[in-house]
Design brief:
Layout lengths: L1 H16 L10 H11 L3 E3 L6 E3 L1 H20 L3 E2 L5 E3 H4 L3 H7 L5 E5 L2 E9 L4 H11 L8 E10 L14 E11 L2 H22 L5 E4 L11 E9 L4 E12 L1 H6 L2 E3 L5 E3 L1 E8 L1 H10 L16 E5 L8 H16 L4 E3 L7 H11 L3 E5 L1 H6 L1 E6 L5 E5 L3 H26 L1 E3 L3 H9 L3 E6 L3 H11 L7 E6 L20 E8 L1
Parallel strand pairs: 3-7, 11-23, 15-16, 15-17, 20-21
Antiparallel strand pairs: 1-2, 4-6, 5-6, 7-8, 8-14, 9-10, 9-22, 10-11, 11-14, 12-13, 17-18, 18-19, 21-23, 22-23
């Protein structure tokens, strides 16, 4: 009974102080699940694999939308919305596409107690929903290019253990679908969109990514090839696809009869792309930056960039402290800095500090009696814990500088940690050693699908199999005579390998 009482007391202490039970370096999966819930990004729903996105997560998502929408508008992409159900016959038209999604399809087969005559699949991706109408709308070369984007949800009934935001059974995303008169136009757009995805990760989420091409075995079903931005989680040594553009060629155009008359009045098929990023972006950000105190938010996506906390003293009139805090918030907000005041008097300072650390607010401003007398504030950075005294007169300009510095520092630190995990190898023994050390492995490859499948089979264990993460656009020099590390055949390119989500 005594032992149980002590455990209960410890639990209360942890809950009161908002401390995490799990440690990032010791128990990553449990740490991650604990952080996203404790920091109020998500709430678990009553159905496994489904999650409620709380306001703080939705605000991050809206920030990314606010960046992305104007950028694709410059590319003449128009907004649309299509229904979330797809006819079974349409879903199965492109066999490779259907086979890739088949295990994850959620079907609607009944209306009340009556069986539906035609089974409906819930949207996994909208190629089979949208392209029958591209066939209707595209007739001549003047109808091209046709470029549409929708913000919506998708449902993929994933096999295995779901992971909030990373691999959930419903997620939010944008999906773009484009049709062009030429292959060159389609390829150019795919690269332009991929650069926007890089900017989302690096400029907003402060997560370094590598742009590259997925292997044939990891190309989206129905695509000719898939380009992606690949992130890496150093703590567990796993890559994760951040976003992708799929070059569909004319495969779907053939199946859905998307034809047009060109300038020579000859009938031909369009060239197509599909592209998307999802709320997985938020999960990747948490995995890369979070620590044992909770979230660490990049200022660009933080709904609250600065939290101002009054530091009261016993037997002292705190009216002056509170007035100074209100004035600081007012000044910051007037300069479009997202600042909030924590004036709650029913929470201890320790509780407040723990809560805002857990939520990852980039800067914490403390104003107490000493600061009031010296006409200054104390600013605490969430990213590195540094404390800086700032004169009241310089508050706005210095906070702006600090927010910019935090944003850049988070990217720099994440890139340094990522780069420290990259291991260049040339032989199978070097590959195995690097894989056991949870590295992101750059090795020469013969570019044969069967060899990748062999590597997957040879490395399969309780941690999962190794795979190609991507073949980077920025290829290192490949000296003549270089051999594939796995097959010994002549190498054709460098590829990143590792375990992956």
């Amino acid at each position: 009974m005594k032992e149980r009482s002590e455990k209960m007391n410890n639990k209360v202490d942890i809950e009161t102080g908002l401390r995490l039970i799990n440690r990032k370096d010791e128990n990553f999966e449990e740490w991650y699940s604990e952080v996203v819930a404790s920091a109020e990004l998500i709430e678990h729903y009553d159905i496994s694999g489904l999650y409620i996105l709380r306001p703080s997560a939705v605000e991050i998502w809206e920030t990314l939308q606010a960046f992305f929408n104007p950028e694709i508008k410059k590319m003449n992409v128009e907004s649309c919305y299509f229904p979330m159900f797809v006819l079974e016959c349409h879903l199965k038209k492109e066999k490779a596409h259907y086979d890739g999604f088949k295990p994850e399809v959620a079907w609607v087969t009944k209306s009340g107690q009556s069986d539906l005559e035609t089974h409906l699949a819930v949207r996994l991706s909208s190629e089979a929903i949208i392209y029958p109408y591209y066939s209707k709308w595209i007739r001549g070369h003047r109808d091209l290019p046709l470029k549409l984007n929708q913000w919506c949800n998708a449902v993929r009934w994933v096999v295995g253990d779901p992971i909030p935001l990373i691999r959930s059974r419903e997620f939010l995303w944008q999906e773009g679908h484009s049709a062009f008169a030429s292959e060159e136009e389609a390829d150019a757009e795919a690269l332009e969109i991929l650069e926007l995805y890089r900017r989302i990760y690096e400029e907003y989420l402060a997560v370094p990514v590598i742009k590259g091409t997925k292997s044939v075995g990891d190309t989206c079903g129905g695509a000719i090839f898939t380009n992606a931005v690949e992130a890496f989680i150093p703590n567990i040594g796993r890559g994760i696809q951040g976003a992708a553009t799929h070059c569909l060629g004319q495969k779907f155009a053939e199946k859905f009869e998307i034809n047009f008359e060109d300038k020579k009045v000859e009938k031909t098929m369009v060239w197509q792309n599909s592209w998307g990023f999802s709320t997985r972006t938020i999960g990747v950000m948490v995995m890369v930056h979070g620590d044992d105190k909770g979230l660490v938010l990049p200022p660009k996506v933080a709904s609250t960039q600065v939290i101002v906390i009054p530091v009261p003293y016993k037997n002292v009139d705190c009216e002056g402290i509170n007035d100074a805090c209100k004035a600081a918030v007012k000044m910051l907000r007037e300069e479009k800095i997202r600042a909030e005041l924590d004036s709650r008097d029913n929470y201890s300072l320790e509780r407040k500090y723990s809560e805002w650390e857990m939520k990852g607010v980039p800067l914490m401003v403390e104003i107490g009696l000493k600061g009031l007398g010296n006409k200054q504030v104390c600013v605490v950075r969430r990213d590195n814990g540094a404390k800086i005294d700032i004169a009241n007169a310089d508050l706005v300009e210095e906070i702006k500088k600090l927010l910019n510095n935090v944003q850049q520092n988070m990217l720099d630190v994440a890139k340094q940690k990522r780069d420290e995990c990259i291991q260049v190898i040339h032989t199978w023994d070097e590959f195995v050693e690097a894989l056991n050390q949870r590295k992101m492995i750059l090795g020469p490859w013969c570019d044969e699908k069967v060899v990748e499948l062999d590597v997957k089979q040879w490395t399969e264990n309780e941690m999962g199999a190794a795979k190609i993460l991507c073949s980077p656009f920025d290829q290192p020099e490949l000296p003549e005579g270089t051999k594939c590390f796995a097959s010994g055949k002549p190498a054709k390119k460098w590829s990143y390998w590792g375990r992956s989500y």
